[in-house]
Design goal:
The complex is a heterodimer of chains A (about 130) and B (about 425). Chain A is α/β, with parallel strands linked by helices. Chain A is built from four helices and five strands. Chain A has a single domain, classed as Rossmann fold (3-Layer(aba) Sandwich), CATH 3.40.50.2300. In chain A, helix 3 links the parallel strand 3 and strand 4. The longest helix of chain A has 12 residues. Chain A starts with 10 loop residues before the first strand and ends in a 5-residue tail after the last helix. Chain B has ten helices and 14 strands. In chain B, a hairpin with a 2-residue loop joins strand 13 and strand 14. Chain B starts with 14 loop residues before the first strand and ends with a strand. Classes of the chains: A alpha/beta (about 130), B alpha/beta (about 425). Bound molecules: adenosine-5'-triphosphate and magnesium ion.
Chain lengths: ~130, ~425
């Protein structure tokens, strides 16, 4: 049983280099969760994470990005906190763009229903 | 009426002597003659030919020209001298005009150029056996100067005419063969170009598909957001305008990508002066996103100086695309084998060296096998499986650069990879 109200306690770090997509997905998230931090590449994402790691419950990240890619950022975050829950959103369903160390790999184009279901599952809000 | 049919009754089989040193050719000829019901006698050179002619008195002799012991001309002269009434057909390759003179000089009755067709062989035999052609000196003697020597020819008109006709026939036949070969070659070339166009279209479509992923994703999100925003009561005029602008912005981008690629696929109509650096940059910007997806960086290094040249700009871009595609394939295949994986990179340099513009494409994909590097520009040479390569990329690139534009395209191995250089 999905109860969207439970998401109101969740803080998300969302990392995506495409401005339109970041804006649209962030908007979708903001309607449902407590807070959304936005970053345009792995470097920015990592900086925000370092400053707010206590607060951030969930990281949602693209893979292919300039400056620092998603994989490098995920590795750095996992070194800090192995248990950090992460969801990948990527355009490519291949070994370079997906990982089995994250909770979900979501292939673009993003279906917001699927994303929502993934978030609920990863946050343990749904069996 | 059976007059025109060649039905020989056993008793009156016509005897033909074949003088030919090549067994295969002799047997080939014998088979044809036997099929037309001639009795065949064979001799393997001029000396034996002359002997057999005396022993068996054949109705006709067919003789090769180049043979050991005694050649065809000599044998012909000898037979004509003593057994003057046996018609002789000489088989020649006719590589030298002097062959004709030698043929006439020795008194041969007819000539057949190798390779000959069955019909022309049989029609000549028929002709010689059925027409009365008394080989007598007609009294007129022609003196002919050719290649520094003078030849005395006293062949009959009949012979000269025969020779003329058979030479003409052969030339026609050869020409027909040649134009058939030209046609086949042109067809093959057309196919080659066709295939490479298909391959090019393939990379285009992959690149377009790649370029379109993000905008398609954005448009799909806007559509989903409309629904969501309505549920959350956020729909306003401003919201709708923003959604519309986002969609149109993405559509504009998608249109531009397609326009870029269509422009690139159109062949350049004529040679013109174009900026080599800009052409290289254009092709890189079109394919960079696609390459970086594979983890390969495409880097440009441009000389400060102006680098313009006269040529076909789109074809030049196609060559660059072929080269970077090859480099990408090399890197991906090297990464398929080696661990740890290399960080793939392709460097495109435009430099002016000793007044010449050089376009250099280097990669770190491990280079080309030393045993194979001499063959890479040959059509259909490929080391890739058939779904990945047809082996025409480089051969076509070489034609474009060298034949169509008069520049040069060369390849060599460098530390860690391959280097292709266009010198303008
Ligand atoms: N940069 C390179 N590094 C290593 N080998 C190369 C490189 N470029 C070309 N080759 C070799 O040369 C061969 C011929 O290249 P060519 O572009 O003509 O054909 P292809 O790439 O196999 O097929 P296609 O017709 O699809 O281009 C390749 O199969 C490969 O073995
Ligand atoms: Mg190729």
């Amino acid at each position: 049983m999905i109860n969207e109200a439970d998401l109101k306690t969740v803080t998300v770090l969302y990392v995506e280099d495409d401005d339109y997509i970041r804006q649209l997905v962030a908007r979708f998230l903001k309607r449902r969760v407590a807070k959304v931090y936005e970053a345009a590449n792995g470097r920015e994402g990592l900086d925000i994470y370092l400053a707010n790691s206590d607060e951030i419950n969930l990281v949602i990240t693209d893979i292919q990005m300039p400056v620092m890619g998603g994989m490098a950022m995920i590795d750095a975050i996992h070194k800090l906190k192995e248990s950090q829950t992460i969801i990948i959103t990527t355009a490519y369903n291949d070994e370079f763009h997906t990982s089995n160390k994250v909770c979900r790999n979501i292939i673009k184009p993003i279906d917001t229903e699927e994303l929502l279901e993934g978030i609920m599952f990863c946050m343990g809000l749904k069996e | 009426m059976y007059g025109s049919e060649r039905i020989n009754v056993e008793a009156e089989k016509t005897k033909i002597l074949i003088v030919e040193d090549s067994i295969t050719q002799a047997v080939f000829l014998r088979r044809i003659l036997q099929r037309y019901n001639y009795e065949v006698i064979m001799a393997e050179d001029g000396l034996r030919g002359d002997e057999k002619a005396r022993e068996t008195s054949p109705s006709l002799i067919i003789s090769d020209v180049n043979m050991p012991q005694m050649n065809g001309y000599e044998m012909c002269k000898k037979v004509k001298g003593s057994l003057g009434d046996i018609p002789i057909i000489l088989l020649t390759v006719l590589s030298d005009p002097a062959d004709i003179i030698h043929g006439l000089e020795c008194g041969a009755d007819n000539f057949l150029m190798k390779p000959y067709s069955e019909e022309s062989l049989i029609s000549r035999i028929d002709n010689l056996l059925t027409t009365a052609r008394p080989h007598v000196n007609t009294g007129f003697e022609v003196e002919l100067a050719l290649g520094g020597s003078t030849y005395k020819i006293n062949s009959g008109r009949h012979q000269i005419l025969n020779l003329l006709v058979s030479t003409y026939e052969t030339t026609l036949q050869q020409q027909r063969q040649l134009s058939e070969e030209t046609k086949q070659r042109m067809e093959k070339e057309r196919l080659l170009v066709q295939q490479s166009k298909m391959a090019e279209m393939g990379s285009m479509i992959t690149a377009i598909a790649h370029q379109w992923r993000q905008p398609l994703n954005a448009i799909s999100l806007v559509a989903q957001d409309l629904d969501d925003a309505y549920k959350f009561g956020e729909i306003s005029e401003e919201f709708i305008t923003e959604a519309k602008d986002t969609i149109l912005g993405q559509v504009d981008f998608m249109t531009k990508t397609v326009d870029d690629f269509c422009g690139f696929l159109r062949p350049s109509k004529e040679k013109k002066l174009f900026d080599i650096k800009k052409a290289a940059a254009d092709i890189v910007s079109m394919f960079q996103p696609y390459f970086s997806r594979g983890g390969i960086s495409l880097n440009l290094h441009f000389a400060e100086t102006d680098a313009s040249a006269t040529g076909y700009p789109n074809e030049f871009k196609q060559v660059i695309l072929n080269l970077i595609n090859n480099a990408k394939d090399a890197i991906l295949s090297a990464n398929g084998k080696a661990a740890p994986k290399i960080k793939g990179r392709i460097d495109i340099e435009v430099a002016v060296i000793e007044g010449k513009i050089n376009v250099i494409v280097r990669d770190n994909g491990g280079g080309i096998d030393d045993n194979l590097i001499g063959q890479i520009f040959e059509p259909y040479f490929t080391t890739k499986e058939s779904s990945k390569g047809t082996g025409i990329g480089l051969s076509l690139s070489k034609t474009i650069i060298e034949t169509n534009m008069g520049w040069s395209l060369t390849a060599r191995n460098i530390e860690g990879g391959a280097e292709f250089r266009i010198e303008i």
